[in-house]
Amino acid sequence: MSLWGATVITNLLSAIPVFGQDLVELIWGGFSVSNATLNRFFSLHYLLPFLLAALAVAHLIALHVHGSNNPNGVNSNGDRYAMHPYFIFKDLVTIFAFFLVLSIIVFFYPNLLGHSDNYIPADPMVTPASIVPEWYLLPYYAILRSIPNKLLGVLAMFGSLLILLVLPFTDLSRIRGAQFRPAMKLAFWFFVVDFIILMWIGSQHPNEPFVSIGQVATGFYFTWFLIIVPLIGISENTLMDIATKKNQLRSN
């Protein structure tokens, strides 16, 4: 499964016009997934955790030097929470709970999240019945498969991650955060359900009705960022202005 997963993921770059196939062969180090490919992938997977750890340290330094926004979503200095000890302790509880669950899986159930086909020796001449990525990649795999065109599917898959960068611009509400926004809370849980549906669709064979369900879920995924979130922000701002004007008229 790992061999064919690497083959499928690297072949996505072949959708790039003109030089896509040359780029794939450059990553492979040859004309197929071989020992050179495994060496490169192993080196990449070994170095990335150190890079991520360095970014996490840089993030903590930025929080310490420049501060962060208010978790309440309001701008009043009197309603702010101190980073220490409140959120330091909260994050430590989460970290220790994560390590507890991780330790249980590693020491007692090491095969819980694995794939049984990974115990079969890799054979480039025998394709598995269903090539399935790891569980945490299933939603993006479902988005990739929901679009028939290869290039558009690859763009949609990468766009499903990059679209997170537009959220600070599409969230037009004056209140940052969802602590006091019931409509936004409801929309968020709709998004969570949609994400779980995409994860389920990614684990199924690309047949009906799974293809149609995946297309609807993919459409909702992008609609949530580009349409639903801005509409909720605009409606909340409008209702806030109406309530403020009514209070001003009553006070006058």
From TrEMBL:
What PROSITE patterns is this protein classified in? CYTB_CTER, CYTB_NTER
| TM region positions | 44-65, 86-109, 151-170, 182-201, 221-240
Q: Which coenzymes or cofactors are required?
A: heme b
BP terms from Gene Ontology:
mitochondrial electron transport, ubiquinol to cytochrome c
What is its subcellular localisation?
Mitochondrion inner membrane
A single Gene Ontology molecular function, please?
oxidoreductase activity
InterPro entries to which the protein is assigned, alphabetical: Cyt_b/b6_C, Cyt_b/b6_C_sf, Cyt_b/b6_N, Cytb/b6-like_sf, Cytochrome_b_C_euk/bac, Di-haem_cyt_TM
Q: Which residues form the Cytochrome b/b6 C-terminal region profile domain?
A: 73-243
Q: Which UniProt keywords apply?
A: Electron transport, Heme, Iron, Membrane, Metal-binding, Mitochondrion, Mitochondrion inner membrane, Respiratory chain, Transmembrane, Transmembrane helix, Transport
Any note on cofactor binding?
Binds 2 heme groups non-covalently.
This chain's protein is named: Cytochrome b
Q: Does the keyword Metal-binding apply?
A: yes
A cellular-component GO term for this protein: mitochondrial inner membrane
- Domain Cytochrome b/b6 N-terminal region profile span(s) in chain numbering: 1-72
Species name: Coprinellus micaceus
Name the job this protein performs: Component of the ubiquinol-cytochrome c reductase complex (complex III or cytochrome b-c1 complex) that is part of the mitochondrial respiratory chain. The b-c1 complex mediates electron transfer from ubiquinol to cytochrome c. Contributes to the generation of a proton gradient across the mitochondrial membrane that is then used for ATP synthesis.
Please give the family membership noted in the entry.
Answer: Belongs to the cytochrome b family.
Q: Which SUPFAM superfamilies match?
A: a domain/subunit of cytochrome bc1 complex (Ubiquinol-cytochrome c reductase), Transmembrane di-heme cytochromes
Please give, as recorded in its UniProt entry, the membrane topology of this protein.
Answer: Multi-pass membrane protein
What domain of life?
Answer: Eukaryota
Where mainly located? mitochondrion
